[in-house]
Request: fold
Amino acid sequence: MKRIVSTCLLLMLLVFLVGVPAGSLARADATDRIVTFPDDAHMDACRLIESATASILFTIYDFSDPRIEDSLADAAARGVAVKVMVDPGERLALTDSKGIIADLVRAGITVRSTNPAYRITHAKFFIVDGSRAYVSGNNFTYADGKKNRAFAVITTDPKVVTDLTTIFWADWQRKPLTLQQLTSDRLIVSPLNAGARIKGLIDGAKTSVVVATQYLKSDMVNQALAAAALRGVKVQAITDGTYTDSRTAAADARMFIGDDTVRVSMTPYYHVKMMIVDGTQLFVGSQNCSDPPLTDGNPLLQQREVGIIVTDPAAIARAQAVFVFDWVRSLQP
Reply:
């Protein structure tokens, strides 16, 4: 009976925090808004693109959603200057991705491959009119928008928008990028500072660390989480459970970090890259908890990844509620 009551209360909380329109939880002065997948699909991204009047700078790893294609093409048709960078790796070889890119070029959009200095560009972000930005852990594919658990952040923070623009142009022009060129301490950028920043978040935890990630394969992250658990911090992590390698990694991490600290999600597919520390700091980005995206400065493992730190209480509460819902439904690895 107690379990039934607890589940009912949890679902009521979810209805309040997740079921309401995405913007209604944000404070009037908030610069950030959280987007949840698959609840919000890619409609927030489409609406942001549709609001563009001057420019769109767009970086993506995997791109095959015709709704995003149509929004970008419509923007170009009304005179918006649209530039798109797509990772040229195996995902672009897929038939639907090739078709999307060809359609964008026919629509008059300038498309080029991402910076070859990086083994892959796994970042997923775009900037609209130099004033609004979208930073995501999800790709722009139809499946990602409709089936995957993930998060994105829409922000109007001027420093963040400026820094994302700097990152885009550095990669577009094939120029090196350094931390000294960035002005905001909110961005977590691979291969510049992601490993140090993620470890710093975990090391600084006083009461709780929540991790939602596609993979939990980073020795650095697992060691930091185990140390946090030893000092009394409540550690909870959910990873994908549909693939053998991610489920095995989750089982290994659970044994290392501690009993019932790691669970796996069978549905929805866990494409998340999110962390909440002490209920006051939220990370959302493209970095999985694995070595390449969290290895700073190693030229053999360099990947372009981008994430953002959010402190808005409403955004954190929304992400926390989704995690709690998923935790109850997740399984031991």
Residues 27-186 form a domain with the Endonuclease; Chain A fold (CATH 3.30.870.10). The two ends are 27 Å apart (CA to CA).
